[in-house]
Amino acid sequence: MTKEETYLLPVDESSFTDRLSTDRSFPFHADMQKILFGKQLLLEELPFPLEEIRQHEQHGYLLFRKGIKRELLSCVRCGTTDASWFAEFPCARCGKVEFYCRKCLMMGRISECSQLVSWAGPDLNFRQIADPLQWSGKLSTGQQAASQQVAEAVENSAELLVWAVAGAGKTEVLFAGIAEALSTGKRICVATPRTDVVLELAPRLQKVFPDCKIAALYGGSEDRHEAAQLTIATTHQLLRFYRAFEVMIVDEVDAFPYSIDQTLQYAVEQARKPKSSLIYLTATPKKQWQQQCRLGKRAFITIPARYHRHPLPVPQFIWFGNWEKQLSKGKLPAISSKWAEARLAAGKQALIFAPKIAAMEKTLRILRRMDPSIESVHAEDPDRKAKVIKFRNKEIPILLTTTILERGVTIPNIDVAVIGAEDRIFTESALVQIAGRAGRSAEFPTGTVTFFHYGKTEAMLGARRQILMMNKEGRKKGLIDR
Amino acid sequence: MKDYCLICHQEIKANFSWTTLFREEKAAKICGDCSDNFSPITGEICEICGRPFAFLEAEYKLEKRCNDCARWEEDEQWRGTLDQNRSLYRYTDFTKEVIAKFKFRGDYVLAEIFAEDVQLALQAFHYDYLVPIPLSGERLYERGFNQAEALIVTAGFEPTQLLSRVHSEKQSKKSRSERIHHPQVFEFTTDLQLNSKTILLVDDIYTTGSTLRQAAKILKRNGAAKVYSFTLAR
């Protein structure tokens, strides 16, 4: 059948199936198994003629599911139920006015006559790689304990939360668990909210697992149709998977704003196999999870100390009055300008977090009177990458930033300040992450963290409480030297 | 229910004032920031294609026409084919992105952003039939709707189908000269008599003007007296 003919085939609702029985004598197409195993793709995403797809479906090798549920309006791919994400259009394919989901539109429009196709034939088997881990590094005591629990969770298809402070070295904690999975032929996914992390993690894991095929998936990546044993994906890309992974590792669960959080939970549940392990990594679990940990309702392990065995810097709170009013007059509260002057005089680099771009730019103008090489950066800044590199190279003495640099960026010897720490944008987890920027390297394990505020908030107190608690636990477990 | 911006999905905050209190305001489709990103075509324009002169160097225009239109009009084969085109917005990066999401990603509801402006613009023309530029069958299946038709219907008008595509190579993959010189892309597929009727063609973008002139030519060959066109962007 030519492509021209293919589009003319009517959408046949009677072909929707959800049976999983398979006619074993049917000579199935190996490429189709490779591309569709553990996936949920739209019919039009498939690089096969419709006739061949139909044959596979008739022999029970494919599972078709409707893309949109109408009863309780929801998207089967991304799980959205929020009505504001749905719109209607007159569909030229089926001739009806129908709903489509705008939330996951960028992955190909899914509407009521769309069908999600998954593989229902025999499983794709993955190799059991003997001794997959090629790594000579050594884990800290705290890492060691967590590593062992991760491996056990992988073995027992259990759920585990790894609560590791910023700078604990959480990637290495995964090595044993991934090795355990690879040696037993399990399929693994590491999901993270940010493309940067995918790009950083993929070569790092490839280096220590040289015999394993790794796929790195993010918006615009090439590996889309790779059936790799180890997949590293942004959470968005998870939406193309269906019952694929025996091991699901979710990095930085705290990084998700609430709205995305729900999509993430849905995507994780869809992408993992019914029998699978689920491992969450975070530096600051949300309130509800912390509570579940305390009540013994959630399996967790903490790494309360950094690998360099120094305590986490504890934030200092400094009230600095109605700073916004001062800013509007072109001034910065004296105590905070003194803070900056002292850093400049001592030649110590500093990162200053501001709640909004406008406030940040005003502060920048004031600080530049002290030193014109001070810079600012925000999410939309076209020079974002270049500025961070310049800061790393010590060409910028003080860098002002919005919350975008709250995680990921590791610069050896810096002090950290927040201006307007009372702002709503600075949640407990954001503040813990921000404080976690100081004292990261073994060479310079200390650094000060100062929250300049116009009234203490629950979030500020919660962040300090979390940090003190971790330090206390680290000392108790002998993971901190002094 | 809350209103969300159709482009950035930020909540749209209603502006309360004495005017909004006494006048029934239509719900805004997009937020102020997104709205400011469109550049409406204003000021002096090419009398034929509606291209704004404000962004054109002097050497690219001839009195009231842009060079492109002057070239079309010099060509015996094309002279007078398209009587006039008018467009709403300049084809800036922002507009390009929104239109791409609308037609390539198939976000039909985005037509609502333009509905009011399209309605006003179409009312300014005198015409007998409002004709969307057709898609090929394959393209229509792929996208699920015809974007030109979506613009017409969403603005509250009735489209008339007079044309269909002969074949379906993508316009955007061709050079200007290819677009101008390749053979007929449309055919006349209706029993309607066009004797001395005025047609208003509708499309999403005016790029070289070739598509619209191809359509206009076949309509005139079948009896249309005047053919105008309207596009969202130029």
From TrEMBL, chain B:
Instruction: Classify the source by domain of life.
Output: Bacteria
Q: Does the keyword Transferase apply?
A: yes
Domain named Double zinc ribbon: which ranges?
5-70
- The molecule here is called Phosphoribosyltransferase
Family matches, as InterPro entries: ComF/GntX_DNA_util-trans, DZR_2, PRTase-like, PRTase_dom
* Keywords, in A-Z order: Glycosyltransferase, Transferase
Q: What is the lineage of its organism?
A: Bacteria, Bacillati, Bacillota, Bacilli, Bacillales
Q: Which residues form the Phosphoribosyltransferase domain?
A: 170-233
Q: Which family does it belong to?
A: Belongs to the ComF/GntX family.
Pfam families this protein is in?
A: DZR_2 (PF18912), Pribosyltran (PF00156)
Q: Could you tell me which CDD domains the record lists for this protein?
A: PRTases_typeI (cd06223)
Query: Which Gene Ontology molecular function entries are recorded, alphabetically?
Result: glycosyltransferase activity
